[in-house]
Amino acid sequence: MMSAGFQWGGVPNKDTLHEPSHNTSSTANPTDPHIPRYGSSSLTSSSSSSSLQASSTSSTTSTMKKRKREDSSDANPAGHNPIQASRKLIHPTTTTATSANKYKRSRTPRIIGQPLPLPRLIESLDKANLQKLVQDLITIHPELQTTMTKIAPKPTIQDSLDLLHDKFNMIISHLPYKCDVESDYSYLRIKPHLQEFLSCVSDFILNYLPPLESNMIHSLHFLEEVTKMIIHNLPNFTNQEFQYTRLTALEQIANCWLIVLSQAENNPANEKEDVSTEVLVKVIQELEILEKLHKHNEVSLNKFQKVIDYCNDKLEQHELIMTNNNAAAAAGAGAANNGAVPASLSDLISVDYSKYSLANTSSI
C-alpha cells in the first residue's frame, strides 16, 4: 500500500503552491487511475533526473542572457544610446542646409569648356600668327581680297620703311664671315632675301606714286630712303646677274623720281604753268633735291641724270618768270614816278571832250 502524502519526483501540485505544507496529506489521491502503480524508488529516481535536466536548461539559458547583457553593456557604456548618438550627429539644420545646397546645385547651369571668342583670339595672336591667319583666310576665300583691300588702313611711311629695313637686314645678316662680301658665293647665299627685298620695294614704291599719294613730300621722302638703301648700303656684288638686276632697279627708281616731281604739272588744280613751276621749285629748294640727286647719280652710273636735268629746267623756267615779273614791276614803277599813265589804264579811260568846245559853249 502507498502511504498518504506521496509526490511525483518532488514536483509539487498546483494546489500546494498556494497552500501550507500541512495540508498536503489531504490533497493526495491514492486511488487516481492515471497514476501508475510502480515502486517508490523507481519513481523517485526518474522524477529527480527530469528535474535536474530542467534546472540545467534554465540555468544555461539564464547564463547566456546574462552574458549578452554584459557584452552589450561593454560595447555601449552607461548612458550611451547609439540611436540617440546617431540622431545627435544628424542635426536638423545640417540636413536642411545639405538638402538646400543640393537643390541649388541642381539649378546651376553646367559649366563646360568653350573656345575663345574671335575678338579675344585675334587679340592674343602675335604678328606672325595674325599674318598667317589673314593669308590663309584669303587663300580659302579669295573673294574677300577686294573687301580687305578697301577696309584695311593705309600704312604710314615709317611703318613701310621699318618693314624695308627688316628685309634689308635679313640680307646683311646672311652674308658669310670668312669670304669676300662681293663674291659670287656671297650673292648666292643672299639671293632669296635680295629678291624678297626688291619685291617689297616695288610694292611700296607703287603705293606712294600719284594718284594714290598726292603729297609730293611724302613720296620724295620715301624714294630717298629706298635709293640710299639700294645704292649706298647694299653690297655691290660682282655677279653679272646682280649687276643687271641692280641697274634695272635704279632705272625704275629714277623714273619714279621723275613721275613724282612732274605731278605738279599734271595736277588739275594748277591750271597755270607758272603756279606749278613755283610749287616744284619750292619743294626742290626746301628738300635739297638736287644735292641728293647728284650723290645718287655719281654712284649709279648717271642713272639719275634725266631727273637732274628736269629739275634744272624747272629752276631755269622759274628764274626766267621771276626776271620777267621783276622787269614788268620795275617798268610800272618808273612810269608812275614820271606821271605818265600806264598803257593799261589809258586804254580804260575814254572821255568825249567835243561837248566842252568853245563853239558849243557860245551857242548855249
TrEMBL record:
Annotated source species: Candida viswanathii
Family stated for the protein in its record: Belongs to the cut8/STS1 family.
Keywords: Cytoplasm, Nucleus, Proteasome, Protein transport, Transport
General function of this protein: Involved in ubiquitin-mediated protein degradation. Regulatory factor in the ubiquitin/proteasome pathway that controls the turnover of proteasome substrates. Targets proteasomes to the nucleus and facilitates the degradation of nuclear proteins.
Compositional bias ranges of the Low complexity kind: 40-63
Name used for this protein in its record: Tethering factor for nuclear proteasome STS1
Gene Ontology BP annotations: nuclear protein quality control by the ubiquitin-proteasome system; proteasome localization; protein transport
GO MF: proteasome binding
Residue ranges with Polar residues bias: 92-101
Classification via PANTHER family: FI02826P
InterPro entries attached to this UniProt entry: Cut8/Sts1_fam (IPR013868), Cut8/Sts1_sf (IPR038422)
Region (Disordered): 1-111
Keyword Membrane belongs to the record: no
Self-association and partners: Binds the proteasome.
Keyword Nucleus: yes
